[in-house]
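Reopening this one. Same input as before:
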Amino acid sequence: MWPFAVALVLVFLLAGAGAFWLLRPQPVPAPQLTTAPVAAAPKLDIITATESEIAEHVGTSLTVFRFADNPRILVLDFASLHEQGEMLNRVAAFIEKAGLPHDRVLTDHELDEAIRARGDTVETFYFGHDYAAKSIVRFFAFADNERIQLTPQEETLRALLQQQGWFAPDVTAGLISVPAVGSDPRITPSARAAILRHELSHGEFFSEPEYADFTRTFWLTELTESERGAVRNFLANEGYDPADEELMFNEMQAYLMFTRDPTFFRPDMVGMTPDRLAALQEHFFAGMPASWLRDILAGYAVAASAR
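Same output, byte for byte:
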């Protein structure tokens, strides 16, 4: 009887252990970043164009350009700032705007509140946008997982990225935007050209890893700690998230090297003298990889020496 009793006890113990295993709290799996397929949309026409052709273009609706000097850069040319804001403001909030969450996508109500809190409107939240392909793909993945209702313009953006194959892994490309002349009283032909040049430099940063690596090294080795702090403060005042280090040195190259319109940038805005900024520009030019963007800096140097 004793062996039978022991066996019976063992059966009950094993059954209890099995029940405990089945009833234990199960770990909650981390959400997978997936992007829902978009319904079939008309294929968007893409026009290959140079910088001057884009700058001089006058459109009545959204025009998509492929930048001739770097085909991995797409340029969205909007006829109105409202249309631009409806497509890209939520993306901006998710990717880079200071004081807003970068680990979830804002609802319509939250986005409206964030824009009003900064004294902005849909039209003035940004004049020009620039994003890496991987960042926009991440935006759509989070929006889908959170079941955020996107605008028709945002869905058009998704369709464009799918049309270009940007949802494939390891795509290196950049998307920028430029506003139409007259879409705001401040958007004159010269302002549009300055914004385009600034944004194209971002496009190069996103699409050319060698240039991005060079910019990071320059930021860390050529600027002093106090200069980096001054640039960071300037960008924070402009609404950029100063905790995003890559954003800081990406904006550094765009403002310090390629924004020559004093309406948008002057050396005193980052506590520099004109001579110090000129020295940094010279060092940047000397070390940067060969590209159309390097040719731009060469052109600036030639123009300065002719004066």
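So the earlier flakiness isn't reproducible anymore. For the record, The first strand starts at residue 46 and ends at 49.
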